[in-house]
Amino acid sequence: MSKKYRKHGYAERLKYMHMLENGFSRNYIERRFGISGELLGYLWTRYRSEGPTGLLKKQNVRADYAFKLEVVRDVEENNITLLDASLKYNASASQIKVWLKVARTQGYDALAITRPRGRPPKNTMGRSRKKKPEEMTELERLRYENECLRAENALLKKVKALVEARDARLKEIGRKPSKN
Length: 180
Known about the structure:
single chain, mainly alpha
């Protein structure tokens, strides 16, 4: 029944906590239900401090520079564990780990850098949008028309070459080519 990378709902989490209270080992629960030991330890700590409400999923924290700096400094200066910092500041341990790495490699000022979230707007992706003929200058309009004529000319050349190749094949096998 062991499943890797499984999500565990509130009822399952509560069941795991009752199992721990009843003397089952962490290792048994990890293997049997496919929950990571780190998550199980984190949930157990929250369950002991907050009760069953500690098992509810938390809202994501939108951290600003001041919050990140406070968390990183607290972890580094007071030597608290990621789990304790996660419980204290209500932020995920993995995110705190990322902030620590950024602060150690690039300095505290790098915590202020935030990347835009989500997909970029359409007008910044790939090529620019097509202008309507009324919006174009005369030079742009002539260049666009020239590009269209070149494409049309290339297409006609390809069609002509295909027709000639077909006619040559038909001559070889002795049929009369059609007159299109």
